[in-house]
Amino acid sequence: MGAALAQGLLQSGRSTNDLAICEVSAERRTTLAGMLPGVVVTTEVPACSEAIIAVKPADAIAACRQAVAAGARRVVSIAAGVRLAALQDACGSSVRVVRAMPNTPALVGLSATAFSVSASCTAEDRTWAGALLQSIGMVVELDESMLDAFTGLVGSGPAYVFYLAEALRDAAIAEGFDARLSGELVARVLVGAAALLEREPQNAAELRARVTSPKGTTAAGVGVLDDRSVHDAVIAAVHAATQRSKQLGDA
Question: 157-250 in CATH: which number?
Answer without folding.
Answer: 1.10.3730.10
